Amino acid sequence: MPVKNRFADLHADITGWRRHLHQHPELMYDLDLTTAFVHDRLRQMGIDEIATGVGRSGIVAVIRGRQDTSGRVIGLRADMDALPIHEASGVEYASTVPGKMHACGHDGHTAILLGAAQYLADTRNFDGTAVLIFQPAEEGGAGAKAMCNDGLMDRWGIQEVYGLHNMPGLPVGEFAIRPGALLASSDEFEIVVTGRGGHAAAPHEAVDTTLVASQIVVSLQSIVARNIDPVHRVVLTVGTFETDSSASNVIAHRARLQGTVRTLDPENRKLAEARVRRVAEDIASAYGATAEVTWEPGYPVTINSDAETTHAIDAARAVAGQVTVDTPPIMPSEDFAYMLEERPGAYIFLGNGDTAMCHHPAYRFDDDAIPLGCSFFAELIERRMPAT
Ligand code: NI
């Protein structure tokens, strides 16, 4: 029996927790109901140490094995926040809050980690310490960074860290992972181009900001096409283009562009930023305008370290039989990347079957994936820190 038998017994309870969380979604750091629920469950499990308010609304739970000769401390992470989406999934336990929905399955991740906590607290069949991390604000609020800035890794002596995310399209019962970059970095930029406004019929007396900004938009694509090694993946998208002219016979004085850059390695991320600045400023200068570039760094690249990826594969294989070990990287981003910047670790995809993609109003989390996720975390702890 690959899935730990204990999780067959706990499945109904954990599903109940998951559906309760699903009915009461909360956003970002404002997780009063969610954290109270997680805290209550953890307290009832007789967990050794529970800390709240880590990174504003994160919770850290410490479970010691029945031995501690290894000195090893392993972190397991789940995210708790929902999205500002109005649910249209049709499930009977749908969100009770209009305009808020667990559309990324973080209710499932939280319930899975609670299930693993129950098992680990009951059995203690390991030599070392498991640190369970329940984080806020994955969806754009960098909750993982807030917890790291609050001393998460050092305060609890975490040496390696693991997380999982459900994956629509991957069958329930399967896992997928890869060493190295798994998810992209996501930065945003704004370019404000200032020329000289004027009469549309007297362009020689103006500096046409619309023309300059257009040249910048076109040339920015040369960064991906001509500066990035063609076997690497980078996306650069200009999403907005607005000028301060609202009339067809007026040359705009100012234009504003906003865009995003996604990369799969830190070097390309740096290169892209440097090139965006240079291209915008120098093109503007060539036309007698100026460009002011603001770079807003977002989540880093999610990079799985080699040894820990192997540990994750071993644990997943023990649960599911086989594991996809070379799944292609994808261009969304994930704030678990901040934890992987501080400690070696790995992030794995858990099959969630045939449903709408994450962040879609019809998305559904499949409760049949729960025992696999729980067993994965439990196997990881017992295999990395075997009791004698
Ligand atoms: Ni998510």
SSE arrangement:
Layout: H1 5-23, H2 32-44, E1 49-54, E2 58-64, E3 73-79, H3 106-123, E4 129-135, H4 143-149, H5 152-155, E5 160-167, E6 175-176, E7 180-183, E8 185-194, E9 198-199, H6 209-227, E10 234-243, E11 250-251, E12 254-263, H7 266-286, E13 290-296, E14 302-304, H8 306-320, H9 336-342, E15 345-351, H10 370-384
Parallel strand pairs: 3-4, 3-5, 5-15
Antiparallel strand pairs: 1-2, 2-4, 6-15, 7-14, 8-12, 8-13, 9-11, 10-12
The structure holds nickel (II) ion (NI).
Q: Measured on Cα atoms, how large is the radius of gyration? A: 24 Å
Number of strands: 15
Q: Write the CATH fold name of the largest domain.
A: Aminopeptidase
CATH class of the largest domain: Alpha Beta
Low-confidence stretches: none
Task: Describe the overall structure.
The chain starts with a helix and ends with a helix. The protein folds into 2 domains: 263 residues, Aminopeptidase (3-Layer(aba) Sandwich), CATH 3.40.630.10; 112 residues, Alpha-Beta Plaits (2-Layer Sandwich). Helix 1 packs across helix 10 and helix 3 crosses helix 10. With 388 residues, the protein is α+β, with helices and mostly antiparallel strands. The mean pLDDT is 96. The chain contains 10 helices and 15 strands. Nickel (II) ion (NI) binds next to loops.
